[in-house]
Structures are given as structure tokens and as C-alpha cells.
Amino acid sequence: MVKPFEKWSGVQEVVSGYTGGTKPNPTYEEVCSETTGHYEAVRITFDPEVIRYEEILNIYWQQIDPTDPGGQFFDRGQSYQTAIFYLNEEQKVKAERSKRMLEESGKFSKPIVTKILPASKFYEAEDYHQGYYRKNPLHYHRYYIGSGRADFIKRHWGEQHEK
Q1: Which residue pairs from 60-65 have beta carbons closer than 8 angstroms and sit at least 24 positions apart in sequence?
Q2: Which contacts (CB < 8 Å, 24+ apart) does range 85-92 have?
Q3: Cα separations (Å) of 70 from 118, 122, 132?
Q4: Measuring CA to CA, which residue among 111, 98, 13, 106 is closest to residue 59?
Q5: Distance of alpha carbon 73 from alpha carbon 142, whole angstroms
Q6: Dihedral angle over CA of 9, 62, 104, 94, nearest 10
Q7: Which helix (H) or strand (E) holds 117?
Q8: Strand ranges for 11-109 from DSSP E
Q9: Is 155 exposed, middle or buried (0-12, 13-18, 19+ CB in 10 A)?
Q10: Distance (Å) of CA 31 to CA 16, 19, 24, 94, 101
Q11: Coil, strand or helix: which one is 44?
């Protein structure tokens, strides 16, 4: 989820990590074991004078399958479920509005199951997870295609939204 956001003007930093769970300083292995309650997530720092929060939300919706309650593409389990974590009431309202607009758009035949949740402590993922698509471009690209993500995005959002 880092690559789709990093290419936009106004996005200052995208950090991979974990949030929403109960264990302090979880490791990737612990999060994937489904015992900590954390989600894999990204923390996005952006300049609202350059890119609005609503645009960040739109980018997010166009990278996921918001109808899949069991995870994302090849990644299965609670830690891979989709969620938007808001920092304040304004973000909550905007996230709920964007979800409602997506539901009403008719773009998906199944219900939108992405949760809108209050942000909790964010733990940065291990160094090898940061900027993974840059460090491992071939693996990232094979996964992007092989997992079905590329085809899903193309089918629902068109060519211009790939990668």
C-alpha cells in the first residue's frame, strides 16, 4: 500500500506498520499469527494544502477490494482486512461519507465491508518492510499481478489506476 500513495504530490511520508491491536511493539510474525488483533496498515503524512484527505481516501479505495471480509487477494486473515483509521471527528465523517458514496455508486455488487475505526497506537514495521516495492521490485510486481490485485483494479477502475 506504500507505492500507490508515494507517487502523489503532497504525500510526505508513507510508513508500513501495524495498528488496532493489543500487543505493544508487535512483530510481523506476531501480527500474521492473528494473536495480536493488529491490522497491517500504512501511516500517511500529507500536506492538506496540496492533497486533500478526500483524495487520500479515493486513492485507498482504488487499491483494495472493499467487499472482501476475509483479507485482501492472496493475503487472508484479520490482519489483512481493510480499514480506514481516522484521527479525529472530521476524518471520521469524511471517511464514512466516502464509503457511503462508494456504496451508492453501484461499482460493486457486494456490500462494502471496509471498517472505519478510530486510530490507535501505530507501530512501525521492521525495516525490511519499509519501501518493500523499491527493495524487491520483481517480487512486488509478480505479487501485484499474481495475486489478482492488478486485474481487480483494472476491472473496477480502469487502466489509468494500475500500480
Answers
A1: 60/1, 60/84, 61/98, 61/102, 62/4, 62/153, 62/156, 62/157, 62/161, 63/1, 63/4, 63/149, 63/153, 64/114, 65/152
A2: 85/19, 85/20, 85/41, 85/117, 85/118, 85/119, 85/120, 86/116, 86/117, 86/118, 86/119, 87/119, 91/53, 92/116, 92/118
A3: 20, 22, 23
A4: 98
A5: 13
A6: -40
A7: strand 115-118
A8: 11-19, 39-46, 71-72, 75-76, 83-86
A9: exposed
A10: 13, 10, 11, 28, 31
A11: strand
Q: What is the length of the chain?
A: 163
- The three cell numbers locating residue 113: 465491508
Radius of gyration (C-alpha) of the chain in whole angstroms: 15
User: What is the residue type of 111?
Assistant: P
pLDDT by 10s per residue, the chain, length 163: 999 999 999 999 999 999 999 999 999 999 999 999 999 999 999 999 999 999 999 999 999 999 999 999 999 999 999 999 999 999 999 999 999 999 999 999 999 999 999 999 999 999 999 999 999 999 999 999 999 999 999 999 986 554 4
Alpha-carbon distances, residue 139 vs 2, 71, 135, 136, 143 (angstroms):
15, 20, 9, 6, 6
